[in-house]
TrEMBL record:
Highest taxon of source: Bacteria
Positions in coiled-coil regions: none
Source organism (scientific name): Streptomyces cyaneofuscatus
The protein's name: Acetyl-CoA acetyltransferase
Thiolase C-terminal domain sequence ranges: 244-392
PANTHER family: ACETYL-COA C-ACETYLTRANSFERASE, NON-SPECIFIC LIPID-TRANSFER PROTEIN-LIKE 2
Length: 393
């Protein structure tokens, strides 16, 4: 099939998705997980690897994505190495969709893999207190202001301003674990209670251990392609309907409001470009390194008003059978979190829209499959955000 198109812009679809081995992976390198995920995504798409002329990767190698593409045997003519933390993959998907729509690429492969858990277990790496000590960050580093402390401060501010409670934050973790119970690939599936969350060891006030994401190994891949390749794919397409991205701050002193994340901007842009409203969305996949991230992102995407996130996450409203299913695979709090988890959000959203989520499959009234999903990634300490609206059929 010719890659040429008689009109621009072209529609763009997700045509292949995959997970590499996830959870506890002691016998693989990050490169091997990249390759495993890439092969599986191509197989899922049914397309030949020769169609892939775009490649996006971050977090591995000195010259990502050049080094990773070489390892995979690819010679792309379009590349992206954007690195903005957990939001990286939603931002990359936006860039890839724009490139394909403009005729700059036929198909773009996004791949991620990490052995974060195995590396710490084997002593190959240790935890970091800071992302860096140069530039603006140098003014915070001497005070030992770690990443988790920054999230904890933001959560405390929300509690102070809006009366959000520890129990409401704990509900986010409890629901994520309940969702994970239906996911055979989730790392932790045993049920937990609000009391379990509240009574756990303190990590950074107000976050106890279960308020924080797990540490796992794993990888995944997503293949985007131009509309003319969709008839040749093995699965029904999931279309990229709208995207948005936003950068906020690097230092806490430049963050104007601890209770507003950059998803307030990226979400608005994505919904406007998709021509839909938050009320149209059937499920949401949200970056959840900490419970507060889920709560405040729900507010900023417009699923509830500012300050009402605490009430919104109560009583299972974000569970698989709730009003708005959120992080249907268990999220970073229970399923997997090998590092920059944003690509996993896209994989799970596509699985749900395809109807391939097994016992955790979300259904609309009458047993119909969901039609619209949103994936919203957050980077750093609410430093960046990328939001993607996806649609079925």
């Amino acid at each position: 099939m010719s890659a040429s198109s008689s009109r621009l812009p072209r529609k763009v679809a997700v045509v292949g998705i995959s997970l590499a081995d996830c959870g506890r992976v002691d016998d693989a390198t990050p490169y091997a997980l990249h390759a495993q995920a890439a092969r599986r995504a191509l197989a899922d798409s049914g397309l030949d690897r020769s169609v892939v002329d775009g490649f996006a990767s971050a977090g591995l190698g000195t010259l990502a994505p050049v080094e990773v593409a070489e390892y995979l045997g690819l010679r792309p003519t379009w590349v992206d190495s954007t690195a903005v933390g957990g939001a990286t993959w939603e931002v990359m998907a936006a860039h890839a969709a724009d490139a394909i729509a403009a005729g700059r690429a036929r198909a773009v492969l996004l791949v991620y893999g990490s052995t974060a858990r195995a590396d710490i277990k084997a002593g190959r790496r240790t935890s970091n207190l800071s992302f860096g000590a140069r530039g603006p960050l140098q003014f915070e580093v001497p005070y030992g202001h770690s990443l988790i402390a920054k999230y904890a401060m933001a959560a405390r501010r929300h509690m102070h301003m809006y009366g959000t409670t520890l129990e409401q934050l704990a509900e986010v973790a409890v629901t994520a674990r309940a969702n994970a119970a239906a996911n055979p690939e989730a790392m932790f599936r045993d049920p937990i209670t609000v009391d379990d969350v509240l009574s756990g060891p303190m990590i950074a006030d107000p976050f106890t251990k279960l308020h924080c994401c797990i540490r796992s190994d794993g990888g995944c891949a997503v293949l985007l392609a131009a509309e003319e390749y969709v008839p040749d794919t093995a699965k029904a397409p999931v279309w990229i309907l709208g995207t948005g991205e936003s950068a906020s701050h690097s230092t806490m002193s430049e963050w104007e409001d601890f209770t507003v994340s950059p998803a307030a901007v990226s979400g608005r842009l994505a919904f406007e470009r998709a021509g839909v409203r938050p009320s149209d969305i059937d499920l949401a996949e949200i970056y959840d390194a900490f419970t507060y991230m889920t709560l405040v992102t729900l507010e900023d995407l417009g699923f509830c008003a500012k300050g009402e996130g605490g009430a919104f996450v109560e009583k299972g409203r974000t569970g698989l059978r709730g009003e708005l299913p959120v992080n249907t695979d268990g999220g970073g709090l229970s399923a997997c979190h090998p590092g920059m988890r944003g690509l996993f959000l896209l994989v799970e959203a596509v699985r749900q829209l395809r109807g391939e989520a097994g016992t955790r499959q979300v259904h609309k009234a009458g047993g119909r499959l969901p039609e619209l999903a949103v994936a919203s990634g957050t980077g750093g300490w609410f430093c960046s955000s990328g939001t993607v609206v996806l649609g079925r059929g």
